[in-house]
Structure prediction request, 250 residues.
Amino acid sequence: MPKLKTAIISLTCCEGCQFAILDLGEKLLEVAEILNLEKFELASSKKGLGPYDIIFVEGTPITKENVVTLIKARREAKILVALGTCADLGGVAEIKNYSRAGRGKMLEYVYKNIEGIDNPKIKPISVYVKVDAKIPGCPIEKKEFLKFVRELGAGKIYKIPDIPVCYECQLKENSCLLQEGKPCFGPVTLAGCGAICPSNNFICEACRGPIRDRNLTSLKKILGKKMAVRELMKIAEIHGVKDDLEKNNL
Ligand code: SF4
Ligand code: SF4
Ligand code: SF4
Prediction:
């Protein structure tokens, strides 16, 4: 199979997901056997020229330029992948959607001169363009990216199994933070990170977004006895997944 002509591009974000790819180290050579990385914005100044077989889009469409870039990417890509939670679900930038003061007040608080600064409601890239696949996480799990690329090499698109973080957490025989009354989102969050946070005694903040078959009401009830639901859902605002968790289905 010929190599797939590929671009990895960024909208507004911290570029941590591209760093996660770079962090593959020597495994990047395996990636390069499958993908012809014509454009990899963090790693190379090569401009690249479309069309592409596949474009990975990282970040949130915040500015008008971001939206233009995204729409152009969709036109140029046979397969378009949302890379990381910013692209997939809105990500950390979405915190301002939840602000009680409102986005305008937040902008005024952060910038002295707000003239010409775009301040739209934050939305995932799927609101603007059709998305063919996603690799969730903040940042993405580099091993999952590699798995995704290997599947591409076999002519398939890797679909992340719809199982919760608790599954991976229990395989590691961790003691359960939820049972200690801590606000762990593991039961409603998509696995694939190896339950890295609870394995290190941190709660799962749902950065990979929700599983399809989730019961948020039940989680709220369990924790309701120990903490206010508002306090609980504030944690889900960190990665911008509160609205996604609260939707009936994704
Ligand atoms: S998903 Fe997280 S790590 Fe990736 S670009 Fe967004 S903020 Fe950075
Ligand atoms: S610690 Fe969190 S992720 Fe682990 S089993 Fe308990 S609720 Fe699930
Ligand atoms: S345990 Fe939860 S917060 Fe931590 S990386 Fe996994 S999904 Fe994200």
